[in-house]
Amino acid sequence: MSQSKRQARRAWAAARRKHIKRGHVYHVQFHHDPACAIYSQERICCCNPDRILMDDRGRVLARVQGAGFYDPLELVEGAQ
Ligand SMILES: [Zn+2]
C-alpha cells in the first residue's frame, strides 16, 4: 500500500470517528468507477472509489479520495 493511500485511509477513519456518533443518522457513499468489478457478479471492488460521509440531511461531512479498494470491513473497524 502506498504512503498516500495509507494517509487517505487514515483520513477516512478519522473522519468517521469524528462524525459518526451513536444514535445519529448518517450516510456513507462510495463512488465506484463504472468499470469496477463491484458491479459484476463477484462484487469485489477493483477501483479507487471516492468515499463520502453525509449527515441525515445530505450535507457532506467528509470526502476522501485515493484510499484504494473498497473493503466491506472498513465500515466496521473504528466506527462506534
Ligand atoms: Zn470499486
From TrEMBL:
Annotated protein name in UniProt: Uncharacterized protein
